[in-house]
């Protein structure tokens, strides 16, 4: 991986300006670099940024802006370029994500969705206040590899358990991995309800998703 490419994209990403990032991506493509090269470089930058966030060197609002900008640059510039040359971005798996029924908090979920997309997953974001049946329906429709459920209210935690129980009754539990997260969610809760993974924050959620999908860092 070109050090200069990583450096240029890092500077663009840390500008927190979408136009600056998009222009940097287009400039890289104009130099003859492939969309895959640029995506791989962005992945390296995101990993560095994740380390900064976990070390307390970045604020949550900065992480949100970065995740959204990278997601937009990939979907609007790089993916069309891949399709133009007959290629497709390598997918790490399909993730159905949403905030459970009864809960309308979605900032954390949105960050996770953006980070998962930027990391290479196909993300199907169901939004907030998502009924159990919708998680099941979408999982079946897209043949999802992972369900990621967010709950920010302790009163909505049981919905996470219910989704897992319904997956079992529908014969889908062995076909899909389940991740849970949110302020009141703990590793112990995840284990109690039979979830396969728990992410304390967006960075950890991406790492867990990669582990569950068998992807390597």
Account of the 3D structure:
The protein is an alpha/beta fold and 217 residues long. The protein has two domains: 82 residues, Methionine synthase domain (Methyltransferase, Methionine Synthase (B12-binding Domains), Chain A, domain 1); 120 residues, Cobalamin-binding domain (Rossmann fold, 3-Layer(aba) Sandwich), CATH 3.40.50. It contains nine helices and five strands, in the order ααααβαβαβαβαβα. It has a five-stranded parallel sheet with strand order 2-1-3-4-5, with helices on both faces. Helix 1 crosses helix 3. The two termini are 15 Å apart.
Summarize the structure.
The protein has 217 residues and is an alpha/beta fold. It has 9 helices and 5 strands; from the N terminus they run H-H-H-H-E-H-E-H-E-H-E-H-E-H.
Topology summary:
Elements: H1 3-13, H2 18-30, H3 35-54, H4 60-84, E1 94-99, H5 107-119, E2 122-125, H6 132-142, E3 146-150, H7 157-169, E4 177-181, H8 187-193, E5 197-198, H9 202-213
Parallel strand pairs: 1-2, 1-3, 3-4, 4-5
Helix pairs in contact: 1-2, 1-3, 2-4, 3-4, 4-5, 5-9, 6-7
At the third CATH level, what is the topology name of the largest domain? Rossmann fold
Level-2 CATH architecture of the largest domain: 3-Layer(aba) Sandwich
Query: What sort of overall outline do the alpha carbons produce when their principal axes are compared?
Result: globular
Could you tell me the mean pLDDT? 91
Helix content: 55-70%
* Uncertain ranges: none
User: Count the strands?
Assistant: 5
Which value, in Å, is the CA radius of gyration? 18 Å
Task: Give me the CATH superfamily of the largest domain.
Answer: Cobalamin-binding domain
Strand content: 5-15%
Side-by-side strand order of the widest sheet: 2-1-3-4-5
> How far apart are the first and last residues' alpha carbons, in Å?
15 Å
Biggest sheet layout: 5 strands, parallel
CATH class division of the largest domain? Alpha Beta
Structural class, from secondary structure content?
alpha/beta
Give the helix tally: 9
| H/E element order | HHHHEHEHEHEHEH
Number of domains: 2
